[in-house]
Amino acid sequence: MIGCYQRFHPVDWKRLDWSSKAARAFRAEAATFGLGNQGYSIPIRGPNGQFALFTVNTSCDDEEWEEFTESNRRELILIAHYFNQKALEFEPNKTPEQSQSLSPREVDAMTLLAIGYSRAQVAETLSISEHTLRVYIESARFKLGAANTTHAVARALSRGLIVV
Prior knowledge:
Beta-Lactamase, about 160 residues, TF_LuxR_autoind-bd_dom, single chain
């Protein structure tokens, strides 16, 4: 789940890190409830920071799974989008939360973080200290009502404040 939450694009489970003891135990327990050895999860983000996953899974070999995901990727993304639209219809009068606008430097920092730069790389790219970068990130987090930096990036993306 964490591996999918940290991404904005569909995730083939083969690309996730299953090496930790906790991850292996989780996967083993899930298998006892019928979870397959192959999976494909699509993160879905709502206009107010909501998060969900649309996931398909099965038990098959890698070659068969690769063929399935390659030939059905577009349809799976469309299905996930459709489910998200239907879920949002449960609260038809709810409008996206209004947020304060981000400063140009906050936008720059959030954008570089969103495309995968480390804090050190962002600071170097913007020609600022990491301390100054922390100030920009904390300010953006506050304005976006985010719990952490990843959440702030997700909210900025979902609200169209940054584009990657």
